[in-house]
Automatic annotation (TrEMBL):
It comes from the Bacteria. GO terms for biological process: rRNA transcription. SUPFAM superfamilies: CarD-like. Pfam families: CarD_TRCF_RID (PF02559). Residues 1-113 form the CarD-like/TRCF RNAP-interacting domain. This is Transcriptional regulator, CarD family.
Length: 165
């Protein structure tokens, strides 16, 4: 169970702060405990109420500083994942994003980035969907790392680049 003040990764919303834990009655008239979450990097004030016992949408604690170091150290060692069939690739990449796993996000980002560089040399571009998926994974990963390191999400790529072994 999370506590008030904890930072969590909530679905595709990204980093949220648990601002309260409340009891409320909704549709079935049974009182339930709810986390009150506020997305840290939202551009507008947003409040999310999610049942404490929710199993449908992933919510997990943010990773530790040590986990970030391990993640960055592993980036050069990661194999590129590329599926030529666009429909299957999109499906697999969406599963990776929805996994809530930073390692999968970094693999996806690296894979699409390398393909993008390859295509650029050929005077071509990656698909809009590949670009969108990469940006989605970057947003989630950058927000999580930024929260732990107390930097801005825009500063994360430079931080990663300067810390790759």
């Amino acid at each position: 169970m999370f506590k008030i003040g904890d930072y969590v990764m909530y679905s595709l919303t990204g980093v949220c702060k648990v601002t309260d834990i409340i009891k409320e009655k909704y549709f079935d008239n049974n009182e339930k405990d709810y986390y009150v979450l506020e997305p840290v990097y939202a551009t507008t004030k947003t409040v999310i109420k999610i049942p404490v016992d929710n199993k449908k949408v992933f919510m997990r604690p943010i990773i530790s500083k040590e986990d970030i170091s391990d993640l960055i150290d592993e980036i050069p060692l990661k194999d590129e994942i590329w599926i030529d069939d666009e429909r299957e690739r999109n499906h697999q990449f969406k599963l990776m994003i929805h996994s809530g796993d930073c390692k999968q996000w970094s693999t996806l980002i690296k894979s699409i980035f390398l393909k993008k560089e390859e295509k650029k040399k050929e005077g071509k571009k990656i698909t809009q969907e590949d670009e969108r998926l990469m940006k989605s994974a970057e947003k989630l990963l950058n927000e999580e790392i930024a929260t732990i390191l107390h930097i801005l999400p825009d500063e994360v790529p430079e931080y990663i680049q300067s810390n790759i072994s």
